Amino acid sequence: MLAISPTDRFVVLTGAGVSAESGIPTFRGVGGLWRNYRIEEVASPHAWRRDPRLVWEFYSMRRKVAASAKPNPAHIALANLERLLRERLLLCTQNVDDLHEQAGSKNVLHMHGELFKSRCDTCSRAPFQDRNTYDPPAEIPHCECGGRIRPHICWFGEVPFELDRIFHALEQCTMFMAVGTSGLVEPASPQPNENTQPLNNRILVTLKPRRDHVWPLFR
To answer: What domains can be seen in the chain, in order of their start residue?
Structure first.
C-alpha cells in the first residue's frame, strides 16, 4: 500500500499499455506497420504534405477503433485517485483517445494531442471537437481560411504539447507514477537539456516499465 500524505503532489504518465487493455492497438503494434506503411509514413508533417488523403484514412480508422472502446479499471482507478487528490494530481497521457475523460478524469494533458479533435494546418484557429471520419472518396475538409483540416495530433518531428506545464509539474511533484509506458516513445520521450531538472528525492512508482526505461530525468 502506498502512503499518500496531505502534501504529496502526483504526476501520472500513462501510455499505450493502458489503452491496449481497452482494445486499442498500441501505436507500434503489428510490427509498426499499417497496410504495409511504416507508422512514420502516415503520422508526420512530410506524410501530410505528400498524401493528406492517406493520413486521414489512417486517422479515420483510428477514430473508428477508439469510438467503440470503453474505459478499463486502470482509467477508473486514476479517475478515483484524482477525486481524492484534486488539484494535487496531474494526469499526463501519451494516448490520444478520450478514455481518461470517459472514466471521469478532469485534469488531463494530452501531450500527443487528441484523436477526436482537428485543427487547421494554416491559420491559428483553435483545435475543435471532430468525431467525423474522412475515408476515401471523402474530400479533405477545409477551414474557412482555405487551409486544410488535419488531425490534432503531435506527429513525428513535431514538439509535444504542454511541455512547459508538464516540466513545471514534474519539478513540483513528490510522486511520479508511470503506467503502461516505457517513456521512450517518440515524439513524447523528452530529451534532457539545459532546462531539465533531475527529479531527485521523488518517489517513483512504475506499474509496467523498468526504472532504467523511464525518462532520463531520474538520475
So the answer is: 1-24+71-112+160-219 (3.40.50.1220), 26-68+121-153 (3.30.1600.10)
